[in-house]
């Protein structure tokens, strides 16, 4: 009998695919993939969290019998994200010195300034305004571009390329965008090799490549991965957080009355939306029994973040957006060794963007209904196509 087909669409845009609830009862289940292969799908919170930080589940792409990716094979696609120890830790450390909570704190005034500029511009636009393009996309794109040292005139181009790379339904276009981004980044790196500036790429060149710590051919995959992972997820998170405000008057009222609840709001929004929907993969690295199933070395495993974050055993009433969850131990940023390296940055961006938006446009409202919105299902990162609003 055929296994259920994966990926599965969300039926309600605000909840994971409904089948996940019955899968959770069964533990890991086998699902069929579009390329004819199959994988284990883990949807329970305990299973997903365990597998995220268990060395028997490898992140090393080269150990997979076949790749489940829309991109060209064998090209060190995703830098240390798709590696195991010790290479993973060595490369991750070089990036993390730039992304410590302390470093990111220094970014706060720059993020605030960017947010205010974008809001100033929004005020001048004819309504309805597409909050997705003009705010949710614009902010993380500019933050990550400034961080890396990408010239301003190129922001939009790389945003479009990243989005095409992450889409799951147009492989030829994804490949073309991927090669175009490589060419672009190669040129950018060469410019910075000639003339280092005050940015992350230049610092990696001067402090790591020139010292022999980072092979030059590891630099491009690392920069490319930071670029692609750094903005699409955060963009979705900002857009969907804004949607939450517009569809939950109680949540909005609480945030206006008690602005200090923003941290709880951000954490709940991360859990609720779980935008990393199809991109957390592992490969079984040792024959083993896991959660009632026999797994064999080389088998592919998909860790369903939305499934885990909507497991009622970990989050009572998971479909409710609840500011009073207390300790919110969601896995929206992963868990363990591969915990999202940009989590502090992403949190700061959402935490600054949402209150500023609310303060500037207290009457912010959706134009049309949630049913009219187009949600991006066929993408590694869940999100919206656009978000028409007025105030
Ligand atoms: C709301 C925004 C974001 C979400 C939901 C998110 C989600 C995730 C998740 C689930 C993982 C773990 C993947 C795994 O275990 O295989 C991850 C890893 C990673 N993320 Fe994010 N991310 C976000 C923003 C960012 C940003 C802003 C950056 C960079 C500027 C970034 C860079 C990375 C990197 C480099 C890794 C790989 C870490 C490693 O393998 O050690 N992410 N992210």
From TrEMBL:
<keyword id="KW-0560">Oxidoreductase</keyword>
<dbReference type="GO" id="GO:0004497">
    <property type="term" value="F:monooxygenase activity"/>
</dbReference>
<dbReference type="GO" id="GO:0016705">
    <property type="term" value="F:oxidoreductase activity, acting on paired donors, with incorporation or reduction of molecular oxygen"/>
</dbReference>
<keyword id="KW-0349">Heme</keyword>
<dbReference type="InterPro" id="IPR002397">
    <property type="entry name" value="Cyt_P450_B"/>
</dbReference>
<dbReference type="GO" id="GO:0005506">
    <property type="term" value="F:iron ion binding"/>
</dbReference>
<dbReference type="InterPro" id="IPR001128">
    <property type="entry name" value="Cyt_P450"/>
</dbReference>
<keyword id="KW-0479">Metal-binding</keyword>
<keyword id="KW-0408">Iron</keyword>
<keyword id="KW-0503">Monooxygenase</keyword>
<protein>
    <submittedName>
        <fullName>Cytochrome P450</fullName>
    </submittedName>
</protein>
<dbReference type="Pfam" id="PF00067">
    <property type="entry name" value="p450"/>
</dbReference>
<dbReference type="InterPro" id="IPR017972">
    <property type="entry name" value="Cyt_P450_CS"/>
</dbReference>
<comment type="similarity">
    <text>Belongs to the cytochrome P450 family.</text>
</comment>
<dbReference type="InterPro" id="IPR036396">
    <property type="entry name" value="Cyt_P450_sf"/>
</dbReference>
<dbReference type="GO" id="GO:0020037">
    <property type="term" value="F:heme binding"/>
</dbReference>
């Amino acid at each position: 009998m055929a296994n259920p087909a994966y990926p599965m669409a969300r039926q309600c845009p605000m909840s994971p695919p409904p089948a996940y609830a019955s899968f959770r009862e069964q533990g890991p289940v086998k699902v069929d993939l579009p390329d004819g292969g199959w994988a284990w799908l883990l949807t329970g919170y305990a299973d997903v969290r365990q597998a995220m930080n268990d060395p028997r589940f490898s992140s090393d792409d080269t150990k997979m019998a076949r790749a489940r990716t829309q991109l060209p094979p064998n090209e060190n696609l995703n830098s240390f994200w798709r590696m195991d120890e010790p290479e993973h830790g060595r490369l991750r450390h070089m990036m993390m010195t730039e992304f410590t909570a302390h470093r990111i704190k220094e970014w706060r005034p720059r993020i605030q300034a960017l947010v205010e500029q974008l809001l100033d511009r929004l005020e001048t636009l004819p309504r309805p305004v597409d909050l997705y393009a003009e705010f949710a996309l614009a902010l993380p794109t500019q933050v990550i571009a400034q961080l890396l040292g990408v010239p301003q005139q190129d922001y939009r181009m790389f945003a479009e390329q990243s989005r095409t790379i992450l889409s799951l339904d147009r492989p030829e276009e994804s490949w073309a965008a991927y090669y175009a981004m490589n060419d672009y980044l190669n040129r950018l790196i060469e410019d910075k090799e000639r003339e280092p500036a005050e940015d992350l790429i230049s610092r990696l060149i001067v402090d790591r490549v020139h010292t022999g710590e980072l092979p030059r051919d590891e630099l491009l995959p690392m920069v490319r991965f930071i670029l692609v992972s750094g903005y699409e997820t955060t963009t979705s998170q900002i857009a969907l957080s804004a949607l939450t405000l517009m569809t939950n008057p109680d949540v909005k009222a609480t945030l206006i009355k008690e602005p200090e609840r923003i941290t709880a709001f951000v954490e709940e929004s991360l859990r609720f939306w779980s935008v990393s929907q199809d991109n957390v993969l592992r490969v079984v690295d040792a024959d083993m029994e896991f959660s009632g199933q026999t797994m064999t070395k080389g088998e592919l495993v998909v860790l369903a973040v939305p499934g885990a974050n909507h497991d009622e055993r970990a989050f009572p009433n998971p479909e409710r957006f609840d500011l009073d969850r207390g300790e919110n131990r969601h896995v929206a940023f992963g868990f363990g060794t591969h915990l999202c390296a940009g989590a502090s940055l992403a949190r700061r961006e959402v935490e600054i963007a949402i209150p500023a938006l609310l303060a500037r446009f207290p009457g912010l409202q959706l134009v049309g209904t949630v049913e009219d919105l187009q949600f991006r299902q066929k993408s590694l990162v869940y999100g919206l196509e656009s978000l028409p609003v007025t105030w």
